[in-house]
Amino acid sequence: FALMFAEAMLLHYNGSQRHDSMYVFLLPCMYFLFNAVLHFRGKRIAGLRTASLLIYIIHPMMIVVVRAAAKLFHLQSLLIENSLVQYFAVCLLSAAFGFIGAAVRERIGNKPKHRAETERAYIEIDLNNLSRNAEVLREAMPQKCELMAVVKTEAYGHGAYEIATHLEKTGVRSFAVATVDEGIKLRKYGIRGEILILGYTDVHRAKELKKFDLTQTLIDFDHARRLNMQKVTVKTHIAVDSGMHRLGFAYSDPESVKEVFGMKYLKTNGIFTHLCCCESLRREDVAFTKEQIQRFYNLIGELKSNGVPLPKIHIQSSYGLLNYPDLECDYVRVGIALYGIPCSPKDRTVLNLDLHPVLSLKAKIALVRNVPKGEYVGYDRAFRTERDSRIAILPIGYGDGFPRDLSCGNAY
Ligand SMILES: *Cc1c(COP(=O)(O)O)cnc(C)c1O
After folding, report:
1. Residue 277 Cβ contacting ligand 1 at under 6 Å
2. Are 357 and 130 spatial neighbours (Cβ–Cβ below 8 Å)?
3. Relative to the CA of 336, which ligand 1 atom is closest?
């Protein structure tokens, strides 16, 4: 805008312009405006698209209308000779018509009567259940602990855009994803909270980490060292391997962890570990989990006594919270529990929270047919009618990813 203004002033004072509505800097200006509109606070406001198109088309007519009105009401001196008033009158009228047009179109527009995606089989996402689950989980956490919503892999299939934007509206400020590309996508959707990448990111992408203000997990010392060598300041959390042997610095190696805090280009403001059998309440598993927790706290203690300024710490995922609710930490990384489902229906937990599934899978009945007693239904003749039956056929199958094991009312 500043450059366009400067350009206009320059042309004006040079007297060199033939026409006063064409500027070179109009193009980047419009590009910026369109992008701002398309992703305003993470929402795509379709109505603004229509309105801006209408304003573009309508505004020359509005110039004519304003001039005609001026003549009609003898207001030439105000509406024509005062170019600023004329300008605002045209703007106002164009915007009014644009927005009214967009609203009308939204009302009566060409909305399909049957949405194609609900014709056959579809997923329904209950955002009310999502906010309720988030609320229930927050209440179960210790006071100063914050919920970090795990929205990796398209929010476990629920749709990262819908889930993350809704959670951010309800006050969630931290998110976790699996990859740098998922993180970038969330930023482009307009998510402004903290975004932690849980998985490995190639160090050559350091610039993107910085540009999109993403927090990278350091998966081991070598990763940290190589990321630091990129000479790009990046926010990081340290993963500690306390016994799962997936990602992380060895819990028994506080020296390496300490060294990371001295690395110039890494802004390490978090350290965490992951519990690998916290869903189980079997005695050996509980003992192992407690051992993992102890190892992690020991490492933290070691850092503290070495004078390292302690970053935020986090340990639990969903089941970590449900089975070990009192751990002292700054975040809980909750995935599956946010979506209101257990990892396995048999799971019992220490906390019994009132969580509700966010996702439902639905299908419209395609056919209802009568099948006499003693006939078979489906693959493998899996079902045999015990009486004359009415069978409903749903147009969804294993091609859609629906497991065949679930046939005949079987549950996992
Ligand atoms: C996936 C993941 C989580 C979330 O786990 P849930 O069991 O779904 O809550 C937390 N932390 C890490 C490191 C993960 O990879």
Report:
1. no
2. no
3. 8
